[in-house]
Amino acid sequence: MTEVVSGTIKTYLFHNAENGYSIAKIETEDHKTITVVGYFPKLSDDVSYEFTGSYTEHNTYGKQFKVDSFKQLEVQTKSGLVSYLSSSFFVGIGPKTAFKIVETFGETAIEQIIKDHTILSKIGFTELKSKKLYDQLKENKKEEEILVELYGYGLTSKVALKLINTYHDDTLIKLKEDPYRLMYEIDGFGFNKAHAIAKKFGLSNADLRSIKASIIYTLETLSYQNGHLYTTKFEIYEMVRGLLKEDLPIEDALEELVNEKKIILENNNYFLAVIYHTELALSDKIKHLLNDSFDLDNDSLADLISFVEKQKGITYTNLQKQAIITALNNPLTIITGGPGTGKTTIIDGIISVYQLYYDVDFKKNYQLALMAPTGRAAKRMEELLDLKAQTIHRQLGYNYDGKFTFDENNPIREKLLIIDEASMIDIFLAKKLFDAIRVNHQVIIVGDEDQLPSVGPGNVLGDMIASKVIPTVKLNEIHRQAKDSHIITLARSINEQNLTDDLLMTNEDVYFKTGNIPEIKNMILSQIKGALEQGYSLKDDIEVLIPMYKGDLGIDEINKLIQSTFNPNIKNEGLNYNDKTFFLHDKVIQLVNDPERNVMNGDIGLVTEFSYDNDSKPFLEVSFDETKVRYYKQDLEELNLAYAISIHKSQGSEYPIVILPVVRQYMHMLKKELIYTAITRAKKYLLILGNMEILKFASNQLAEKRKTMLAQRLSSMNQVNDSDDISPYDFLD
Ligand SMILES: Nc1ncnc2c1ncn2[C@@H]1O[C@H](COP(=O)(O)OP(=O)(O)OP(=O)(O)O)[C@@H](O)[C@H]1O
pTM of this prediction? Predict the structure, then answer.
């Protein structure tokens, strides 16, 4: 129920200057104290405000008033006016001066000053001082008028403040000009929200601005959700009609967007400008690097390889030797292959031979940069190779303001760069990475091209291989220890779309069990219990991999099930956010990059403390591998339970035990690449629970091929594009 409360601000318990989110105590005229929560700026404590909203009951803090909008109460009394004029809104006016103004001009002082500020000379104001007060009064009134008008369009105070903070006095002009600018210029605004506001401003679906926005949205959806870099006119038409539900002059809008260079048309394909220029620049940079050459003495390389083989007690296959030689002789090399084909072994070989050839010691001399897209993959690399490895973001000096320290103007210093798990790299990260690489660096890209492509747009690894212009070694032989692994055999047969019934028999390391949903839930619990009894840890060794969040066998549900069964702390107090509650000792996953706090998307940690700070605010402390991070309630959006995680989030990580439910409700998500990726996460034991017919069916469903041009661009080797004047980042932000 919408209600109105009015009063003056007593204290702010919390205020976020960026978005205006505030928790404050107000005192009403009848001296009651009410906690108000919502989006409003720092308000003057001398002025009365009227808040519109509703009362809510907060678990910990009790009754609060949730603010939808607010306005300053008309200043009626003389004393109110004195307070207002001497408030922090007006610089240089103290209570004495304010009193003088009100005494002289009465209750209509403000209106009179706005009409003619020179009247202030009567009380000794200089021209400069009276103009200043006039400006501040106008400014103050204006902001309020804009807010009131925005509320009138049904915008919440959160949105209204965000707009005012961005566009200031021009807010209404800018919005009326094109309400869809919100989509491009304000974080958190998608097409649907902007479209709803556009309607309130009276724009019809047939308005060119609406059609243009829906075309951009169509391309964004295809890129950021499906990974495609371009699409056809036909698809744009279909999707725009689906969005606006009318037959509209799409052609004109599309042409305008192309003329405005917001969309690039190339060979009948339509690209978002930022994506087009990113891909083009990436391809040019790769071509540029490929021009370099490193002609090594191959006889001495062969000797060194033999020496390393003896040293390590290993005999490399011919293909593996070829991989080492190729990597050392070329500016850019790709080494690809499935699990157990020796990718890590070869990275180790390359590093050893390189050190001998150039007589350097990577432990003492920082000439090697080992990188992976995720923290966990980097950590695994570090453990296996016994050398420092870090995420690509960290290597590039990604910092809290979203900028990278290393770029084309300040390239990475190390000379040999090895990047593992490269299938996870999207075009934006690839562009950033290659920007920071200079000619005479040597780059080795390692990955399994059959895994899921990157979450972001593009198919960088696949395209680089398909271009056939980058020296590539495809390792395909499964090696000794790995040969006995049924996990690897199963993965390979799925990858080759050759999954036969005899492969679905339980053996030493793969366990298949059919069952319905309640049975699967019980099996998950009993398998975890068994593993814990054998000394495995829930945090480090066991992961349930699931393709979707919702549903009774979705990630959220399974997380709650495992939490309630295995975390005894659920009896104690926890910190909740939406329908999740986190307790001491919960296993959690960070969902977004947060470089300021040194924790990145996909990092897994353990809640090691639940406590209250000096202001009695509850918080959690989470221990990640490298750091401890404190989460208050408002930070919990970044966190999820991690007993079960998505298959996408599991990329780049391996776990001794993987539990993989496969049921009909996942059907629309299940594709060969997804199943292959999930299975290859298991190191020791893989438990597949559910419906094996679905597993067989899904293993033959191929993910849609991403529409990208990188392979073609790379293979047109001789034409390096000189688009120096435009950078893709001209199109960002
Ligand atoms: N030439 C070889 N001779 C004997 N064993 C080998 C050889 N090459 C690799 N191996 C062994 O095969 C196993 C798999 O190799 P490695 O871990 O390098 O593969 P990978 O491709 O990195 O696999 P994953 O992607 O699963 O980590 C390891 O135990 C490794 O020691």
Answer: 0.79
